[in-house]
């Protein structure tokens, strides 16, 4: 009897969730205020990180900016300060766990407790698997995936004590479905998606409904990180690279609406669903038709031409 009651309650929740999602698609959701919240953004010196910082600054959040590039990070910090908010910039190497924990302790002692964590930093090696030095493969996994564990372990405990906070993971559409020749990036983003979803389930299981999570999965963003990447030319106008500002604005809307996941553009939900529903060969046929099997080759060629010293592309 208990099972039947639980089944009925589950079906009610299931139906309400679908109806709510449909309504939110057509109606403007209520956006929360982050005025006065302390927001930490990783990769703040890059294109997306800088735009995230400026958007959160416009919402009145106090900022903590992390990046391994001190000059780029300071540029972001100054632009945010010009908007009238408090900003603290730290140079942090996300490949080193000790660096993350030490910087986190400095933030707590010098600034305060972080209530919004935006894990935005990302890198890609831009080499074929067998041509890629091991240290570049490791760097991609450390920054894009492993750092999520250390960042969360550093800042989640205080969020739990107050049952208040928001953790944002900027992953990628390539964390939902893969493409050829970027094994390091796909593996790291699949890991990021899995980490984020498991963490969300853990918070729900502990009834910590005051800690929100948002997973952001954009298509290729025109930041130069994947310069040269191209699908079939007849389809490029249908799925062009995303404008950085548009990507961040869509992400911010999802964050402020406490949306659990967003794919940008919405078209990216289709391959995510078909990957699970269709046979492997059917997905491969579609993939080849769209030019997905060779889309990264021009990008890799660009990297080989521009970087003979093992430089890593970063967002």
Count of helical segments? 10
Biggest pleated-sheet summary: 7 strands, parallel
- Tally of strands: 9
H/E series, N to C?
Answer: HEHEHEHEEHEHEHEHHHE
N/C terminus separation: 54 Å
Low-confidence sequence ranges: none
The average pLDDT is 92
Query: How much of the residues is beta strand, in percent?
Result: 5-15%
Question: What is the structure about, briefly put?
Answer:
The protein is of the alpha/beta class and 315 residues long. The chain has helices spanning 2-26, 47-58, 70-81, 97-110, 134-162, 183-205, 244-256, 269-277, 280-289, 297-306; strands at residues 38-42, 62-67, 87-91, 116-119, 123-124, 165-170, 211-218, 261-264, 313-314. The strands form 2 sheets. It has a 7-stranded parallel sheet with strand order 3-2-1-4-6-7-8, sandwiched between helices. Strands 5-9 form a two-stranded antiparallel sheet.
Explain this structure to me?
- The chain has helices at 2-26, 47-58, 70-81, 97-110, 134-162, 183-205, 244-256, 269-277, 280-289, 297-306; strands spanning 38-42, 62-67, 87-91, 116-119, 123-124, 165-170, 211-218, 261-264, 313-314.
- With 315 residues, the chain is of the alpha/beta class.
- The strands form two sheets. Strands 3-2-1-4-6-7-8 form a seven-stranded parallel β-sheet, sandwiched between helices.
- The model has no long low-confidence stretch (mean pLDDT 92).
- The radius of gyration is 20 Å and the shape is globular.
